[in-house]
Amino acid sequence: MGTTNDSVVSEFVLIGLSNSWEMHRFLFCFFTMFYMGVILGNLFIVFTVIIDFHLHTPMYFLLANPSLLDLGLSSTTVPKMISDLFTDCNIISFPKCMIQIFFIHVMGGVEMVLLIAMAYDRYTAICKPLHYLTIMSPKTCVSFVVAAWMVGIIHAVSQFVFVINLPFCGPNEVDSFYCDFPRVMKLACVDTYKLEFVIIANSGFISMSTFFSLIISYIFILVTVWKRSSGDLSKAFVTLSAHITVVILFFMPCMFLYVWPFPTTSLDKYLFIVDFAITPVLNPTIYTLRNKDMRVAMRRLGKWIVGPSGIS
Fold this sequence. Notes:
Layout: E1 11-14, H1 21-51, H2 58-75, H3 78-87, E2 91-93, H4 94-127, H5 132-135, H6 138-163, E3 173-174, H7 181-185, H8 193-228, H9 233-258, H10 267-289, H11 292-306
Helix pairs in contact: 1-2, 1-3, 1-10, 1-11, 2-4, 2-10, 4-6, 4-8, 4-9, 6-8, 8-9, 9-10
């Protein structure tokens, strides 16, 4: 812990997504619209789950946590992106860049574990319905959330301690709209070849292993339902299709970037628009519009907000 960062670089320049003024205006409107959807949609889900006692179940408890994470993950990058597009000032200080990297990986690690918890919840509900409430007890759900945060923090710290002490003394242009390990590491004044394997072993491995574990678990659930009753297969598939969609959208950019952490193209920064803007706004849409209990709860919440003074 006695090492210090000998950086002379005090700030980084975020290249962004485009140099075109017309594209800047489009992206400003795009990110502003999606970020408003992220805030309103996810906060509404969390608020509805908290207020409506009908939703005080393991499934919705686990659903509310990823909504908070989607809001936090999006807020680490999108507001800065909107500000840069509006002011045309793409500067981020060294400390803020490091903080952004840290929180991206904390919340990303937490969300991966929670997706596993949600898959386990659906497995229990579909394959062991009689034991569901016993297995998915409040204690189990809280344990999942605590474990998720522990994994997320360990996941971020185990990489962050190496990057924070890298010397940055030359180029300071980050070819992206946000700070992250692979592109920031490329600017270091030392050989980061060994650190590349740390990223692969950590972010790359956890992304790949979690993705394939989730896909295998969903296939196992569908096969189990098919063996029991082919008539229920379509219902199970509809239930799981939203989870599968979220998993594919969430992990596709992660695996593209972190399995080979020194990108030679700029494709990854466009892919991560999905994780930071599109997926966080899709989650509320998927889980509310396709879920009868949530729609009913939203109507109850709407009547409660309007109150007796509302139009009858």
